[in-house]
Structures are given as C-alpha cells and as structure tokens.
Amino acid sequence: MRDLGAEPTLQGIFSTNRRPLMVSANTDFGYDSKIEGGVIVSRADAAINWIRTNSMWPMPMGLACCAIELMAVGGARFDIARFGAEVMRFSPRQADCMIVAGTVTYKMAPQVRRIYDQMAAPKWVIAMGACASSGGMYRSYATLQGVDRIVPVDVYVSGCPPRPEALLDALMKLQDKVRREPSARRLLSA
C-alpha cells in the first residue's frame, strides 16, 4: 500500500517494478500484443473524432470589442495551441469552427452568413460574448439579437467581454461535443 503522506523520491518515481498510476482508462483505442504487426484496433468514430477535435481551425469573426479577447487567446499566456486550434484561418474554405466575437449588425449579418455557407462541412460555431449571443445591451433597429438567427450556434460564451479562459472553456466543450458525434456514419453515407 502506498503511503500518501510520504514525499515522492526519485527512486520511487522512476522505479521499474511499480506500475504508473493511470488517470482513466481509454476505451476508444486498444492495443493487442497477441496480434502480429502491432495492430491498434479502434472504432472509426473514435479515430475520426479524435482527429477532428485535435485539429480545429477557427475562422475568427471579430466584429467588436470581444475580438480583442479573441486575439489574446492566440498569445502565449492563454495559448490556444494546447487545444489544437492555433491555426486561425481567415479563409472560410480552410476553417471548420467560426468564432463570432462581438456585435452583429443587420448590415454585417449577410456577410457572416455568406462566410458560414462557404465553410466546408463539418463546421461549428461559437458565439462569443453577450452581443453575439443575444444582442447584448443593444436593443436597437441596427443590431441583430443573437447570431443564432442566421447561423446555427453550437456553444455560447457569456460575458461582456468574456475572458480568454471562457473562450478556451467553450472550445473544450465544443471538442467534447465533436467527440460524441457519429461521424463515420455521416462520412461513409455521403
């Protein structure tokens, strides 16, 4: 039995006769040493979704002050690269996750929809901030009361403006959603 109050030593950490402590078992991928050639067996959904969750390329739609917080996420302090989303693409044909950050006006709404339509499937949307989610404090004739009126939104981020940590949390929630999608059936039936 392991003494929880004892300090770990280098001898104890690097000992070869002890098994490392596992956080949780991964049931999506399996390795069978009895099969020749080192074959890894998995479900197609698990493999495809693993690739998609770890390589999301965001399309930043910085429309107002939330865009400053979106820019901060790409910096070294918050480092969106840890989640595989560091490749900000300003071309909709190369992006698969649109981040709408800021106030969407009726004048800008057709352009946001056009860029969303140009993105290749599968595509996801994050509404960042109170203005993108619900119109925020602007209840005027010029402001769209939520970007979900023109594009389907997967994750909402609250705040005015939301902190970069909130956007990273939304990205992790979106990755969890993508991890559960039945992607192989959609991909192979198309």
What does this structure look like?
The protein has a domain at 57-178: Rossmann fold, CATH 3.40.50. Helix content is 32%, strand content 13%. The chain is built from seven helices and six strands, in the order H-E-E-H-E-H-E-H-E-H-E-H-H. The chain has helices spanning 10-13, 44-53, 66-73, 109-118, 130-134, 164-179, 183-189, and strands at residues 29-31, 40-42, 58-62, 97-101, 124-128, 155-157. The strands form two sheets. A four-stranded parallel beta sheet has the order 3-4-5-6. It has a two-stranded antiparallel ribbon with strand order 1-2. Helix 5 links the parallel strand 5 and strand 6 (155-157). The N and C termini lie far apart (54 Å).
Main traits of this protein?
about 190 residues; alpha/beta; Rossmann fold; four-stranded parallel sheet; two-stranded antiparallel sheet; about 30% helix
